UniProtKB/TrEMBL annotation:
This is JmjC domain-containing protein. Residues 125-251 form the JmjC domain. It comes from the Bacteria. Keywords: Dioxygenase, Iron, Metal-binding, Oxidoreductase. InterPro entries: JmjC_dom (IPR003347), NO66-like (IPR039994), ROXA-like_wH (IPR046799). The keyword Hydrolase does not apply.
Length: 414
């Protein structure tokens, strides 16, 4: 379903650590059923961004992370993005949520689909599922979407602009797919449906089976009976998006700096009077040309932009700060017993010089280097490990701030 915004890989000049981090994902050279008894390295080399891969029993004995009713409950929330796609009487229709349970069609009615985006942000089981894919950089991760469909339901033949793992979690879905050149769309529809769909492959996925599709592969998944599919999506930004966002970032940075060049205003004390007032003055063109020509940037600006942009939570994400926050001392006492977990909604990235948390860029100090990259990779700081670091008051006060913002949790199941 073509909806996710696109973006890119981060600045990745990160020092290699001696110990691989425990991330929930297979290690680069570990053979795993998740990838059809291949290693992540083999998968990335042969398939990632290159060609589709069908994996039978990628996760054997997999149970759906959410029940149908739990998914419907999520679709009823204001800060959860959901869509309802129906294909009744051969007509495509799209509605955006939230949906109260009685606003959804009856589960006895054929050919409708409910898509719920960002389930990993709200549910620990979905979050654990997405963690299995952390052999791919976090900066590429978009979210885990769950689709529920009644018999015959689907979103029509289409293509997406991102990489996706389509994991069947309940019931059966028939997937047809292929790399076709003609990606023209049917005009006048509320969703993107291919005009001429010519699939090369045809398969039925059962719970635990998974299909990887790189961007722009035409595909169509039709439910055979009631079914649920998880789609773990990875964003790939267009050059247009990156350019627009980078220039916006540069302009903001320049505007933020007091007395900076970016704050200079256009001036025209030499402007002569005109008798053709609608004509663009040559002086304007020349002066603005000079302002634009003075824009410059270096690798640091690019890294800062990428880290901030890619760690920015989506606009509908709301953090839940603790209702009665502990003071710093009590917080430290608690964490000595419980350890810390990054909140599911927190995005924490780093490079050799900086870290980026929920859209904010900060310098990675020598003391933060000792714990922050490890915390970002594993998303967990064990109580024992925390205990060894508590003498670092900069760390404890920073973590206390994050705790009060709801960015980290002392209770891992929160
Ligand atoms: C997709 O094709 O991108 C997913 C649609 C679905 O799960 O129904
Ligand atoms: Co799709």
């Amino acid at each position: 379903m073509p909806k996710r915004p696109l973006h890119a890989t981060p600045a990745s000049h990160v020092e290699a650590s001696s110990q691989p981090a425990r991330t929930g994902a297979p290690l680069p050279d570990e053979v795993t059923p998740l990838l059809g008894n291949r290693t992540p390295r083999q998968f990335m080399r042969r398939y990632w961004q290159k060609k589709p891969l069908l994996i039978r029993q990628a996760i054997p004995e997999l149970a759906a992370p959410l029940t149908r009713d739990e998914l419907f409950e999520l679709a009823d929330l204001d800060n959860v993005e959901s869509r309802l796609i129906t294909h009744f009487r051969n007509t495509w229709n799209l509605e955006h949520g939230p949906f109260a349970p009685d606003e959804l069609p009856s589960i006895k009615k054929r050919e409708w689909t409910l898509l719920v985006q960002g389930v990993n942000l709200h549910d620990e089981r979905a979050h654990a599922l997405i963690n299995r894919f952390r052999f791919i950089p976090d900066a590429r991760l978009d979210d885990l979407m769950i689709s529920y469909a009644t018999d015959g339901g689907g979103v029509g033949p289409h293509f997406d602009s991102y990489d996706v793992f389509l994991l069947q979690v309940k019931g059966k879905r028939r997937w047809r797919f292929g790399a076709q050149r003609d990606l023209s769309l049917k005009p006048g529809l509320p969703l993107k449906v291919l005009q001429n769909f010519e699939p090369e492959e045809d398969c039925v996925l059962e719970p635990g089976d998974m299909l990887y599709l790189p961007p722009h592969i035409a595909h169509d998944g039709i439910a055979e009976g009631e079914c649920m599919t998880c789609s773990i999506g990875f964003r790939a930004p267009s050059a247009h998006e990156l350019t627009a966002q980078f220039l916006y970032h540069l302009a903001e940075q320049a505007g933020d700096a007091p007395n900076a060049r970016g704050n200079a205003r256009y001036r025209d004390p030499e402007q002569p009077p005109v008798d053709r007032p609608a004509a663009l003055p040559a002086l304007l063109l020349e002066r603005v040309g000079a302002i634009l020509a003075s824009i410059d940037w270096n690798e640091k600006d690019i890294a800062k932009f990428l880290g901030s942009y890619l760690s920015e939570p989506k606009s509908n994400v709301v953090f839940d700060p603790p209702e009665r926050a502990l003071n710093q001392q009590k917080f430290v006492e608690r964490v000595k017993k419980t350890g810390l977990t990054l909140d599911r909604k927190t995005i924490l990235l780093y490079d050799a010089k900086s870290y980026f948390v929920n859209g904010e860029a900060e310098k990675l100090s020598a003391s933060a280097k000792k714990w922050l990259p490890e915390f970002a990779d594993t998303r967990r700081l064990e109580a024992k490990r925390f205990l060894t670091l508590t003498a670092d008051s900069a760390m404890t006060s920073l973590l206390h701030e994050w705790y009060r913002a709801g960015w980290i949790q002392t209770d891992p199941s929160a």
